[in-house]
Structures are given as C-alpha cells and as structure tokens.
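Comment thread on ticket #2218

A.B. wrote:
> Attaching the input chain for the structure job we discussed in standup.
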Amino acid sequence: MQINFYKDIKFRPVQILTIGFALVILIGAILLTLPVSSNSGNQTPFIDALFTSTSAVCVTGLVTLDTGTYWSYFGKTVIICLIQIGGLGFMSFATLISLVIGKRITLQERLVMQEAMNAFSLQGLVKLAKHVLIFTFFVESVGALLLSTVFIPDYGLAKGIYFSIFHSISAFCNAGFDLIGQFRSLTVYADNAVIILTISFLIASGGLGFYVWYEIFNYRKQKRFSLHSKLVITVTSILILGGAILMFLFEHNNAATIAPMSFKGKILSSLFASITPRTAGFNSISTSDMTPAGRFLTVILMFIGGSSGSTAGGIKTTTAGILVMTVISVVKGRDDTEIFKRRIGKEIIYRALAITIIGIGLIITVSMILSIEHLLSILFMKLHQLLVL
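C.D. wrote:
> Ran it. Output below, let me know if you need it in another format.
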C-alpha cells in the first residue's frame, strides 16, 4: 500500500506564510551571493547575503554591506524586489499573478491572504488585494516622480530615475535601504524639503495600514470611520507631532545633530527623526550622535512601530493605544477600557499585553546576548594586555 505523505500534510495559514517568507529570503540570499550581484564581480559571503535578504524581506533596513557602493544594479534590483515583496506580502503578489493569468483564488489561498493582511473576514479579500496593489503602485509612482526632481539633476537621467524608484519603494515599504553610499542615508539631504517631506509622506502612508486608507477613500459613502481607523489615526498623529516636538527640544542645542542647521533644517530633521524610527530605517541626522534623550525617544518610537495591516513593524500603534487607554481606565477606577465611547473586550486587551511583553522579552534577551559578546571581547582584550605585560 502506497501512502502519499504530501497529500496528508496540511499546513495552517500562518505556517504557509512562514514557509513562504523563508523561501523568499533563501532565494534572495542565493541571488545575492552570485558574482553578478556585487560591483566587484566577486562572490558575496552567504552570511552577508542572507542577512541582507532577511533585512530586505522583513523591511528592517539593517545592512552589513553598504547598499549604494557594494551591490551592482542587478544586486540592488534584487534587494528592491525583496523589499516590495516583504512590504506587501508574497500573497499579494501571488494574487496579482493569479489575476493576470486568470487563475481562480481558492479558499485555502483566501485563508492565507486573510492571515497575511490581518483581515477581519474572507469577504471582499480579493477586491481588497486589488485595491492594495493599485494604491501601492500609485503612491510609489507619485513618490518617485517627486524624488526625481532632485535625484535627476544630481545623478543624471537614468541613474536619477533608478534612485527615485528605489527610494520610493524603500520608503513606502518602511525598509530604510538607500543608495546614497558610505552609510550616510539621507544626511546629505537634511535641508532638502522635497526629499525629506516626500520620504516622510511615503513612510507615513505605508505605516498607516491599507484598511485605514480604504476607509479614508470611502469616507464619503460611509460617513464614518471604524474604531480601528480612529485609533490608528489618533495614535499616529500624536506620535508624529509629539515626537517631532520632543526631538526638537532634545536636539536643538546638539552641535553634532541639528544645532548648526537653519531653522527650516531643524524642523525638517525633527519631523523626520519622529517619523522614520517607526521601522523605516532612514535618517537625516546621525543617530549615534543624538543626546541620550533623543536616542531613548528613538527606541520608544521603534518599539511602537506602525499600524496593523501596514508595511511597518513594531508592536503596532493600536496595541500601544489600547495599553495606554487601559492604564488611564485603571487610574480612573473604571472596570472596562473605553476608546471613543466604545468598550474594548478583555481578550483584545490580553492580546495587546501579551504582544508587548513578548516584544520586551525578546529585546531584553537579545540585548543580554549581545552584551555577553561585548563583555567577552573586553575580557579577551584585558587578558591579552595582562599576558603581554
């Protein structure tokens, strides 16, 4: 009797998503190891290629090799494709391919799409995926057009267009990869309103979430926003405006960051430093040269991140908003958490608390591991000095 093991294996949507992202990362890493991917024509070490591929798909912006100078245009194109897939989710692209070739979307694929897009129901998922793709390509095209007004005069027609497209996609997907070179990010454009404001708009647009934008575009019909959208818009506005004001206060006398800038440059850099830490990864001022207060504010913004169903990461603005409102309700002696006169269920509060505690736990654990590595290096150096003496 012959048993078909593959037929008997059934994966849940979250498992399919995990396997799918792992395969995309692996394929990206293999492509980046090829000699054609580097400017020197040499093969890239697999560990660096894997790290870059993982960072691109997970839209973190961390790199071990300078994106602008190390990779060839083939390598840069692989990276931006990985960013686009990671930002929107590979299921969105699978849906796009299915629609192009006329393939029917199965129930299993719809379940995976629901998990990937953090959707509330299966109804209208394919239609939503279409809107997400159209909206994404439209916003990225507008962003590239605006960026080209600066990049084309600076780098020439062909290179300027490529730079514009690359940075527009990287910003909208909250990836933070740049092609400026020498790990400078956007510091050379700190006083350029077109670059800073366009990148800021792209980051904020991608970080709001597609459901929020869907309700914004359909507001004339519905005449109302859902509780989710109200909370996202409110928390995002507070983080951007409050973060910009605090960053300006913390850094305005710091000679290593914004003190030497004009008033316009200070405002732009403070606003940008408030928006970009929420998983985008760009910077217009040196993060390492910030005051302790500025760096701590950056850590808080990075931890919160963007919104649910967006291209951004973090614990999400909705999670942070629910936890803050829960604390306020407890202080006021209320039994239930209320947001915009709506009661929040206990299961949602427990989920928000669990996400936050898990996030803090991971940060503490990894920080301790990195600290141990650092301490071992210091210990080795001290022992070496003693032995030499």
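A.B. wrote:
> Thanks. Noting for the ticket: Strands lie at 337-339, 342-344.
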